[in-house]
Structures are given as C-alpha cells and as structure tokens.
Specification:
By secondary structure, the chain is of the alpha/beta class. Helices cover 39% and strands 14% of the residues. The strands form 4 sheets. The protein has an 8-stranded parallel β-sheet, covered by helices on one side. The chain has a 5-stranded parallel β-sheet with strand order 2-3-4-1-5.
Length: 791
C-alpha cells in the first residue's frame, strides 16, 4: 500500500511539472530544487517498500516506520493538491491580473482559498522543504531494518479473467455443502405441525465455515419463494441494534422505510404487517446472548401465520439456546479430503493434467494448512489459480504468515492480502470504510477509489475502467462476495481490512447525549447516527486530517444542522470524499448547503442525494477537482449554479429525480462527463441562463443512460442535429416531450392531427448504434423500443 502511495506522488509530481510548462510558466526559484530533491528521496525509499510491506506483519518497528511514512506522504499529497488546484484556477478562470509579473516567480491569484495575492510557489517550496527533511529522517531509520530492494510486485492483477468464469461454475459445490443445504431446505419447508410456537432454526459454526453461504442459498431457493408470503433478511453482527433490526424488517415487508423511530412503534408495525402472513426471517451472524434484546421481537413475530420460520446463523451454541431454537444445524470444519477437493476445484481450474500432477503434492500440503475452513480454502485457491510456477506455490506453502496468530486474523487472509499488488491493496483496505455486512454498490465504491487517487491521475481517461478491473480482481479473490445486485465482504475479511487501516479509519455509531472519544488525526470516518444524536458531533470539525466523511444512515434530530454545516465545511478542508446524503432521515427539514463548501478545494466526491435542498451555492463551482456530484432524488432542486462550467474535472453528474428546468450555460465545458442522468432543454423563459441541446456535442464520453427532458416550445430542429448523440456510448435513451395544453392545441391541424416537431426531432437526434433501449414520453403517451428506432 505504501508502495502505491509513493508511486502516486511521483506521478503527481511529474504531472504538475508538465502542467506548469504547458501553461508557459517555469518552476519558481527554490521550487525546482526542492522538487528534484523530493523525487530523489522518494525514489530511494520506494525501492525498499515492497520488502517492508511483507515484513510489517512480523516486525512491529517496520510497521510503525511505514505508518510514519504514510502520514508524511499524506501531507505531501495535500501540498501537491494545493499547488495543482492553483494551476487549475489559472487555467479555468484565465485571470489576467498578474500578466505583468515576471514568469520566473509567478504569483497566483488565490481568492477562492482566502488568500490575497500570495506568492504560492514560494510557499510550496517551503512546505516541500519541510516534508523532504522529514523524509530524510525516515530514510535514515530505514537502514536499521536492512530492507532489501525488490524489483517488482509479488503478483499481477487477475482481472483479465471474467468474474462469471469463476462463479458460473459453482466451484464451491461439494457433497458436504449439498448435504447441509438439503437439511436447511428441508427444515424450512417442512410443515412444522409438531412445533407449537415459532419454528426457529439455527446454523452454528465457527467463522469461515460457510454459515451465511448456506443461509443465503436456502433464502434464494425457488421453493422458498413459493412457500412463504414474505422473506426478510437482516444482517445483525456483533451489536444487536434493536432499532436497526426493527427498521429492516418493516422496510422489507412494506417496501418502504418506516417513518417512526421508536422501538415500540416499530414492533407494532411488525406485528400489524405479519398478521395473516407466512414469513421467513433470516437473522445472519447473531452474537448477543442477552435475551432482553430478542424477547420483544419474539412476541410480536408470533402473530405470523402458522408455518412461519426464523433462521439464524451464529458462531455460538449459547445464542441458539437463548433464542429457543427448535433445530440446530452444526457446521463443522471440512475434513482433509473435503478440504482438498474444494481446493482442487479452485486452484487447478483450467490446468492441464500434467500441470495438476506436478503441483498436487504441494497443493495438498497447502490445503491442509487451511484448517478445514472453506473461506480459507477459497482465498488460497483463488491466489494459486493464477500462479503457474512451482516456485510460486512453494513460496505460499513456506510462508511464515501461516504461523502468525497474534493478530486474530486468518493466516490465509494475510497471505491473500500480501499477494495483492499495492494498487489493489489500497483499494481493498479502503473497503473498511463500510460497516460490517454493508451492501456495497460497485459504482459508488469505484467513485470513492477515484476520489482518493487510487485509480490514477484526474486526467486519466480510463479511471473507471481501471476501477472495474480492480473490483473484479477482488471478486475473483473471494474478497468481495456477489450478493444479487450488490456486493459484501465476509466479516473475517472485513476484520482484515479494518486491521490494516486501524490507525487511520473509524466507523462510529453516535447516540444521544454521547460524547465519543475519537482520534482527531483520523483520515477516514463513517458515521452512523442514533436517535437524538447531533449532526455531526461538534468535535468532528477538529479532525483536520480527515479525507473521507460518510454518513451512511441513522435517525436523528437536525435542528442545528444548518448551523453546524458551515463550521464543518469550513474546517474539514482536506476532504476528498463527502457523503451527507438523505439516507438518514431529515424530518422534512429544508437544508441549506453553506457557501463554506467552496473551501473544500480537494473534494472529488460529493453526495447530496435525497436532501431537501432548493438551490446550490455558487461557491460549489470553485471545487475544481470535483469528479462526482450526486444529486439523485433532490426533488426540490430547480436549478444548478451558473458557474457549473468551471467544474472541468467532473465525470459523473447524477441528477435524476430533481426538478431542474434548464441546464446552465457553460455546461458544454464539462467534456470529461461519463454520467449525465438528465439533460433539460427549456423554453424561452430562462433566456441567456440556459444552454441548448447543442451542448451535448462536446460530451463525447457520455455512456450508460441519458434522459433528455424537453420543456415547452423548446428547440429548432436544426439545433437537435448538433447534439451528436450518435457518437456517444449510450445504452438507454429516454426522450421526454413536455408541453402545456395551450401549446398542444397550437400543434394540431384543422383535422385535429398532431403536427408538432417531435417526429422530426426524433429523426435528427440520431441515437447511437450502441443503444439497447429507446423510450419516448409525450404527455401521457409512452413509446418503447429495445433498439433505437431512428438509425
């Protein structure tokens, strides 16, 4: 991970130097020298980082040394970002006030950062000098560890293989799995006449034995769908959060989030909604042995129809007894032959008979080290599946990590992590920002990786593709598990990610009247807000190093939210990713995004989805590094700021579900856009503020879905020709023609036939050849086609 960080900084240094030259400037006196010294020192340290990362597990001093290097590198990234943003400001705004200043020592107007004509290059030189001094000290300490120079990464990514190639083969199917799966299904489907109360079934086994896999297989079985009126899946984990469990049950049954936050109200809703229903409730990964947490649910769930079932998975038999399980299915570890058979199916997939025979002896020894845990077998098998040489297998077999027990992490997972390239290590460990059992959205995760700089520089046109490859690599290694339309991590894998990021990342649940003790030097923070908790706790604004702030869900009162946000945005100026979206309940409160958001100059990812906001401040347009702006479901938002054209690095503008009436002028400058959910073409009311459909011509990288909403007497046909949709990689196109009644009458001829320009416009727009679905809406009329009709 440190290797990837240093590589990223060296790449950024080269990019900035190139950008300076392209803008006709020279590196200021002092900066040039400090940059070259910095490059040399980073290069020398980078040469031994691969060895250091392998030794960190068994040498605490090396681990501490890597931590100090990481902190210094983060400081350096901030300095380089400050420099790069100033250059972007010059490029975007074309400020001519300083043309008389000699180019040898350029001055940068820095008003958006609250400076008054500061000699930025001189400041950058001083900061780089301080950081280089720190790196010299770090490099001197490196000698004590006798780190060796390694020429290359341990392994390459395995993402050249399609995910379906692995998961389409059911490689985990074996006799023991099929037998246990049949037992679970039989217990769930049997009549249960002998059970007087709720029929509760428990799957018990140690971590990594496949309890959740069995429960999920049964839950998704077609026979289960036919046998029950309702199916409910709840991820419970260590803390049996009664409110969270209750909300999940209600939301699954009703199909919408409950509007109550009190436990008694939730229990009443559960009781009312299961009456007359035969249901299956799965409680996955239950730890608590406190009956008082379970008792209220048990009494209201008894109101379900006879034959309803509850299936729990747990590591503890005492939990199964506490919950009055009628049947307990114990999952033991695989025996040696079962373990080998599963390992062989994964690690030897696609090999010739000769290759398999040559590696079988080593493979059996490696399988024996997995202690019968399917999770361990999957991970090791996933590593070795792509290793061709006997020496690589021997290196895994002889690794010292098998003997490591003090971290309470499966050795096989450490080996799997150690085998990853540094670029993927940082992506994997960042997944610790999500809570255990969180349903991970692939697109969101890739955007967050981009925001942290894990996928290359901002001007890399293929960042999303790189992110897709890294994501598939983690799936193929069984690090990320496929769960219908989303992904998740096994709790033991999540523990590993948290262990790696333990000193820089925190997931914190905050409740009312709670004053949590936190490390103010954290880099990444996820908040889960409990009932009555303030948003956010005031001390969070003192976390000056914070790079990620995600508020995933929770319930709270937000009376002071508008008062706190200006301070929050004004202080957390190092943020790269900020999610304050409405997954939390805002009690119908209208929110104001403060102008202080313009101080978040490093911000790449901003999620404001589902918020009740009526407008965005013009200062948002000073976030020149912004790559993703999520506004999904902001139903009260009617316009975007006029300065949107300055966000030239924006790649994803997700604005579906808003009430926009036009797109602001200048938006045609957003030539990096990959995602644009909706493009609104207005009538004449917005005058010079609105752009035309022609603005789409410059957005050559648009892909996926696009909705074009056309309001009123909106356009001339010859303008539609200039949109150049044909050159875009769109799969779904929605054309929405909206007209008022008066205009509808005006577009009818004497016989009452429609004679408007819609048909002509549809022809000249020329949807792209990649289109899979075309949808046209006109007033109440809807036309759909699986393929574009207008080629």
């Amino acid at each position: 991970m440190a290797y990837a960080t240093v590589s990223r900084i060296l790449e950024q240094l080269a990019s900035i130097s190139k950008q300076v030259k392209q803008q006709g400037e020279k590196l200021a006196v002092g900066v040039d020298k400090e940059v070259e010294m910095l490059r040399a020192k980073l290069g020398a340290i980078q040469a031994v980082l691969l060895d250091a990362e392998q030794r960190r597990w068994k040498d605490e001093a090396v681990s501490v040394w890597l931590g100090e290097l990481k902190d210094t590198c983060y400081d350096l990234e901030d300095v380089l970002d400050e420099w790069k943003t100033a250059l972007l400001k010059l490029q975007i705004e074309g400020d001519q006030e300083n043309v008389h200043v000699p180019k040898k020592v350029p001055f940068f107007p820095f008003t958006c950062f609250n400076y008054k004509r500061v000699d930025l290059p001189h400041q950058i030189a001083l900061k780089i000098k301080d950081i280089t001094r720190n790196l010299v000290v770090i490099a001197e300490r490196e000698v004590c560890f006798r780190l060796q120079f390694l020429t290359s990464e341990i392994s390459e990514t395995v993402s050249s293989i399609e995910v379906s190639d692995i998961y389409g083969r059911d490689i985990e199917k074996n006799a023991i799995v099929e037998e246990k799966n049949a037992i679970v299904l039989r217990k769930l489907l049997e009549g249960g006449e002998q059970v007087r109360n709720l029929h509760i079934i428990s799957i018990v086994g140690m971590g990594g034995t496949g309890k959740t896999f069995l429960a999920r297989s049964a839950y998704n079985d077609c026979q289960i769908g036919k046998n029950f009126d309702a199916k409910i899946w709840v991820d419970v984990s260590n803390d049996f959060d009664m409110l969270a469990v209750g909300k999940t049950i209600v939301q699954t049954i009703k199909g919408s989030a409950p509007e109550v936050v009190e436990l008694d109200s939730l229990l009443n809703m559960i009781r009312e909604n299961i009456v007359g229903k035969k249901f299956l409730l799965v409680l996955d990964d239950v730890w608590t042995e406190d009956y008082s947490n379970w008792d209220p649910f048990y009494h209201c769930l008894k109101n379900g129809l006879h034959g309803s079932k509850i299936l729990i998975t747990t590591r503890r038999e005492t939990v199964a007894r506490m919950m009055d399980s009628t049947d307990t299915i114990t999952i033991n570890e695989l025996d040696n032959e079962e373990c080998w058979e599963l390992f062989r199916k994964i690690a030897f997939s696609g090999r010739t008979r000769e290759e398999s025979e040559n590696l079988e002896e080593i493979g059996r020894k490696i399988a024996g080290k997995c202690k019968g845990l399917p999770l361990a077998v999957r991970n090791i098998g996933g590593i070795l599946r792509f290793k061709k040489h006997r020496e690589e297998w021997l290196r895994i077999l002889d690794s010292e990590l098998w003997e490591l027990t003090e971290f309470n992490i499966l050795p096989s997972l450490l080996l799997s992590y150690n085998d990853m390239p540094s670029t993927i290590k940082q992506c994997f460990s960042y997944c610790a920002i999500f809570p255990e059992d969180y349903r991970i959205d692939k697109e969101q995760l890739i955007k967050l990786w981009m925001a942290q700089g894990f996928l290359g520089l901002e001007n890399n046109m293929e960042m999303e593709r790189v992110g897709e490859e890294y994501f598939n690599d983690l799936v193929e290694r069984s690090i990320l598990l496929v769960n219908t339309s989303s992904y998740c991590m096994h709790d033991l894998v999540h523990d590993l990610a948290c262990f790696i990021r333990k000193k820089e990342l925190l997931i914190l649940e905050v409740n009312a009247l709670e004053n949590p003790s936190i490390n103010l030097s954290l880099y990444h923070l996820t908040l889960i807000l409990g009932v009555g908790a303030s948003f956010p706790p005031s001390k969070f604004s003192s976390m000056k190093s914070l790079r990620s702030l995600l508020i995933l869900y929770g319930v709270t009162n937000y009376q002071s939210m508008n008062e706190i946000m200006p301070r929050l945005f004004g202080e957390l100026t190092r943020l790269r990713a900020l999610d304050v979206s409405g997954k939390i309940w805002y009690e119908n409160m209208v929110l104001d995004i403060p102008k202080e958001i313009g101080k978040l100059i490093y911000l790449r990812y901003l999620n404001l989805s589902l918020l009740k906001i009526k407008e965005l401040p013009k200062e948002l347009c000073e976030l020149y590094n912004l790559q993703t702006l999520e506004l999904r479901g902001c139903a009260d938002l009617k316009s975007l700021p006029q300065g949107m054209g300055k966000l030239i690095n924006l790649r994803h503008l997700v604005n579906e579900g808003t009430s926009l009436t036009y797109m602001p002028t200048g938006i045609e400058r957003l030539t990096c856009l990959r995602t644009l959910s909706e493009f609104v073409v207005s009538g004449d009311d917005n005058g010079d503020k609105a752009c035309t459909l022609e603005s789409l011509a410059n957005m050559t990288h648009l892909r996926g879905s696009l909705r074009i909403k056309m309001l009123g007497n909106w356009i001339e046909v010859n303008v539609a020709k200039k949109a150049e949709l044909r050159n875009k990689d769109l799969l779904f196109l929605n054309l929405n023609f909206e007209k008022d009644a008066e205009e509808e009458r005006a577009n009818l001829d004497r016989e009452g036939n429609r004679m408007d320009k819609d048909e002509l416009v549809l022809d000249v727009l020329q949807p792209p050849l990649s289109l899979e679905r075309l949808e046209r809406l006109h007033s109440t009329e809807v036309m759909c086609s699986p393929i574009g009709l207008c080629h």
